């Protein structure tokens, strides 16, 4: 019919369109005769159009189908449910999938079960294809899609917000934070009326089918859990994070057009019907927040700007650094923060009364206090009981429900309404202001045994006690997968240490907070203190103790016990150790931090060493991505001082 | 007169059904949802596709612990009360807060400050003891609104 050998696909399309336009009036006369065959002809012509326009290679199509490059370099859809694809090779062939999808849109409509029709299962693909192929609404088989319409109507989505719930070290799956989407019923989430509780959160999470910690870790990391998207009223999330787990919530309102929001809702419906392999470090909750936003607006390039290892705070940075994407950020403080804020508004005597009410479980307060002040005291006491007895209150067990009831009855009798809290969000707490999750450090130093040394330190995640504190929990250290190599005149580079996981959680004791501090370290290390020259072996250490805060200094004391092993040890391959450490960490400013630590290790078995070590570190983060540091170590075996340059990315 | 009796009987029946225990709201409390005791699905453990016959659409992470109607509807009140029980008690005692604003939206109230103040005054009726069930709490809240002239005029959905 048409020759188009040396013509570009776009031009060929133009020519064929002109041809059709000329022919159309003639065809129209024959319409009744060719009606029954016109559907499949039309579908075929659309498939051909799509092929000529190369739609299968467009960014939007790839985003809709979640085609991404695998580690091995080839492109494949990350969706793993067979029902997500119409073409047999759909998972790896975007063009075939596009052609099959077009044909599927024209499949016959079953009168009763039209929710299963491709147009209803894939409203986002349908929407996009109708737009790029200019398919008139009368050309497609008519469908009602009642279930999708009910879903979209219930959501009433006018805008979207990304919600970040802050770090929760008690649970490994929440140790790095968590993020999810919220679809808002109002164009701007805070238009004076606070109704976000009734909005819907869209959450991607693993379907966990084991209670065994080791199995959980292995499956979570290797992609053996299936992940899926679910919708849940935002109030459940607020109750779970703010109240039950005492975590702050950060809400980043996004700038998306109404069409983009509609496409987002339609696409979420499509995703709900399939599953993805869940990978704790890569394709996790935060990854899919980005993947779904990239579908709503493919010009965002969110996934492209996100490193392979996906740490939730990094994804918040990618979002925050996208020009024009974030409209506003709102802070929803945890129950603990609300309590501390209420406490800060009370004078010393009143704080004493809060303690009294909590201890005696009796809300009676002296008449000398005005009803307004009594209300503040009771409000604080109620918050304290809420987050310290969260499980009892939620499960309605124990004595806490009764205490709470008594306090609330007394509070309600005072009559005055409590003022809304308006807790300011400090710049230093915003999750997107945090330093990069990975860090490389190069150091040069002088060692009393080794002479001039140089060392290289790389850490995949996340933050230690000397790193700039913006955006991270104030008194915690959490590191995963780090290694240290060093060299001197004798060896170019030798292995020093590998950290699988290291956590230090300091909870300064103050009135109303008596949590223990704890530490954990699992890794492989070179042992210099034993009488072998270079013993390398695994180590596991656990510690517990307490901390106190003195102005900008956190002082801590931890008792520690551990087990190290190496074939090079003289007496026994396994050496249990006990000891402890004392430390003083000074936060001179957000970016200048010092740490002085003394530690003692005693090998339990005969012949094992006693080690006393003192360490001093001072780090200055002079830019958002770089820092200088000075460290000095002194132990019975050696003394060392070094300066280093660090880069966070 | 007969007409009036019939009409009031019918409206009472209508009212009764609004107060009837909604299907599925038990087990939608935060405790059940977090601990996975609600027999259905849990926030993190929704199986999608394997046990469901549906293979389209997104499933609810809380097993449809909301009424089929829109969120800003009075039918959501019992579900909301069940899930937000602890926070709601706190906000009612304090005469205001996010949960009161949400109740206000669900009941179609023009002004949540009045709602907060009235509910605060009726705290003892709404929460007679610490063991009271969530159905009773939501019934009491709706009763207070219906019986208070300032509120029943203000709150369109009730």
Provide structural commentary.
- The complex is a heterodimer of chains A (649) and B (158).
- In chain A, helix 10 (258-272) crosses helix 11 (285-296) and helix 14 crosses helix 15.
- Chain A starts with 8 loop residues before the first helix and ends with a strand.
- Chain A is globular.
- Chain A has 17 helices and 21 strands.
- Chain A is α+β, with helices and mostly antiparallel strands and 649 residues long.
- Chain B is mostly helical.
- Chain B is built from nine helices and one strand; from the N terminus they run H-H-E-H-H-H-H-H-H-H.
- The longest helix of chain B has 18 residues, at 2-19.
- Chain B is globular and about 45 Å long.
- Chain B starts with a helix and ends with a helix.
- Chains A and B meet through helix 7, strand 5, strand 6, helix 9 and helix 10 of A and helix 2, strand 1, helix 4, helix 5 and helix 6 of B.
- Strand 6 (225-233) of chain A pairs parallel with strand 1 of chain B, so a sheet runs across the interface.
Write the layout of secondary structure elements.
The complex is a heterodimer of chains A (649) and B (158).
Chain A: H1 9-29, H2 31-52, H3 59-65, E1 67-69, E2 75-77, H4 94-105, H5 118-121, H6 123-132, H7 146-155, E3 159-165, E4 178-184, E5 200-207, H8 213-222, E6 225-233, H9 234-244, E7 249-254, H10 258-272, E8 276-278, H11 285-296, H12 312-320, E9 326-332, H13 335-344, H14 348-360, H15 371-388, H16 390-395, H17 400-414, E10 439-447, E11 451-463, E12 476-487, E13 494-505, E14 517-527, E15 535-550, E16 553-565, E17 574-589, E18 592-603, E19 610-620, E20 626-635, E21 639-648
Antiparallel strand pairs in A: 1-2, 3-4, 3-7, 4-5, 5-6, 6-8, 7-9, 10-11, 10-21, 11-12, 12-13, 13-14, 14-15, 15-16, 16-17, 17-18, 18-19, 19-20, 20-21
Helix pairs in contact in A: 1-2, 2-4, 6-10, 10-11, 13-15, 14-15, 15-17
Chain B: H1 2-19, H2 30-35, E1 59-60, H3 77-83, H4 85-94, H5 98-107, H6 112-121, H7 123-126, H8 134-147, H9 149-154
Helix pairs in contact in B: 3-8, 4-6, 5-6
């Amino acid at each position: 019919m048409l020759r188009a050998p040396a013509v570009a696909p776009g031009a060929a399309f133009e020519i064929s369109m002109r041809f059709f336009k000329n022919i159309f009036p003639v065809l129209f006369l024959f319409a009744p005769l060719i009606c029954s065959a016109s559907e499949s002809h039309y579908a075929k012509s659309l498939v051909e159009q799509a092929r000529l326009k190369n739609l299968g290679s467009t960014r939007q199509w790839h985003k809709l189908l979640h085609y991404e490059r695998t580690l091995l370099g080839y492109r494949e859809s990350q969706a793993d449910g067979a029902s997500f694809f119409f073409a047999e090779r759909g998972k790896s062939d975007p063009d075939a999938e596009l052609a099959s999808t077009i044909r599927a849109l024209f499949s016959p409509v079953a009168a009763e079960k039209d929710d299963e029709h491709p147009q209803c299962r894939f409203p986002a693909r349908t929407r996009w294809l109708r737009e790029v192929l200019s398919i008139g609404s009368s050309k497609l088989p008519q469908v009602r899609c009642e279930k999708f319409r009910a879903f979209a109507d219930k959501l009433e989505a006018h805008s979207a917000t990304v919600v970040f719930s802050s770090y929760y070290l008690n649970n490994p799956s929440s140790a790095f934070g968590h993020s999810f989407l919220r679809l808002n019923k109002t164009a701007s989430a805070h238009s004076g009326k606070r109704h976000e509780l009734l909005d819907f959160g869209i959450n991607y999470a693993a379907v966990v089918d084991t209670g065994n910690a080791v199995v959980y870790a292995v499956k979570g990391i290797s992609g053996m859990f299936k992940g899926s998207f679910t919708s849940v009223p935002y109030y459940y999330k607020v109750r779970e994070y703010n109240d039950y787990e005492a975590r702050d919530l950060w809400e980043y309102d996004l700038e998306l057009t109404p069409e983009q929001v509609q496409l987002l809702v339609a696409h979420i419906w499509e995703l709900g019907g399939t599953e993805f392999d869940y990978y704790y470090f890569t394709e996790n909750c935060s990854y899919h927040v980005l993947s779904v936003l990239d579908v709503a607006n493919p010009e965002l390039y969110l996934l492209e700007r996100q490193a392979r290892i996906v740490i939730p705070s990094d994804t918040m940075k990618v979002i925050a650094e996208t020009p024009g994407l974030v409209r506003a950020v709102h802070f929803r403080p945890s129950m603990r923060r609300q309590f501390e804020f209420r406490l800060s508004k009370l004078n010393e005597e009143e704080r004493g009364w809060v303690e009294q009410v909590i201890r005696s479980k009796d809300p009676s307060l002296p008449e000398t206090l005005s009803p307004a002040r009594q209300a503040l005291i009771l409000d604080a006491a109620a918050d304290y009981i809420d987050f310290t007895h969260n499980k009892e209150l939620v499960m309605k067990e124990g004595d806490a429900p009764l205490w709470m009831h008594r306090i609330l009855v007394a509070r309600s009798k005072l009559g005055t309404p409590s003022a809304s809290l308006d807790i300011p969000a400090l710049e230093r707490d915003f999750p997107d202001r945090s330093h990069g999750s990975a860090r490389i450090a190069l150091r040069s130093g002088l060692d009393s045994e080794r002479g001039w040394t140089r060392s290289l330190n790389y850490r995949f995640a996340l933050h230690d006690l000397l790193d700039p504190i913006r955006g991270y929990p104030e008194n915690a250290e959490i590191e995963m997968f780090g290694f240290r190599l060093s060299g001197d005149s004798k060896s170019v580079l030798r292995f020093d240490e590998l950290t699988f996981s290291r956590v230090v959680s300091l909870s300064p004791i103050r009135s109303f907070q008596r949590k223990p501090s704890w530490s954990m370290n699992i890794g492989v290390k070179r042992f210099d203190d034993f009488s072998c020259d270079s013993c390398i072996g695994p180590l596991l250490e656990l510690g517990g103790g307490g901390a106190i805060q003195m102005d900008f200094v956190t002082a801590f004391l931890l008792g520690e016990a551990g087990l190290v092993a190496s074939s090079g040890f003289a007496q026994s391959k396994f050496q249990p150790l006990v000891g402890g450490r004392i430390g003083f960490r000074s936060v001179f400013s957000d970016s200048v931090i010092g740490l002085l630590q003394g530690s003692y290790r005693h090998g339990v078995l005969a012949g094992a060493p006693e080690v006393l070590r003192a360490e001093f570190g001072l780090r200055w983060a002079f830019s958002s991505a770089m820092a200088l540091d000075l460290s000095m170590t002194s132990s019975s075996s050696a003394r060392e001082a070094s300066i280093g340059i660090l880069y966070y990315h | 007169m007969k007409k009036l009796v019939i009409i009031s009987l019918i409206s009472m029946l209508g009212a009764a059904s609004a107060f009837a225990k909604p299907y599925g709201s038990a087990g939608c409390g935060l405790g059940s949802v977090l601990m996975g005791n609600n027999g259905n699905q849990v926030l993190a453990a929704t199986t999608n596709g394997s046990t469901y016959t549906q293979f389209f659409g997104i499933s609810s992470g809380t097993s449809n612990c909301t009424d089929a109607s829109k969120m800003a509807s009075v039918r959501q009140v019992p579900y909301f009360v069940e899930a937000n029980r602890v926070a709601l008690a706190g906000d009612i005692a304090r005469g205001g807060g996010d949960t009161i604003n949400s109740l206000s939206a669900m009941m179609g109230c023009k002004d949540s400050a009045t709602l907060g103040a009235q509910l605060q005054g009726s705290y003892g009726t709404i929460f007679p003891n610490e063991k009271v069930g969530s159905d009773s709490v939501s019934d009491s809240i709706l009763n207070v609104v219906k019986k208070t002239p300032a509120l029943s005029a203000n709150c369109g959905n009730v």
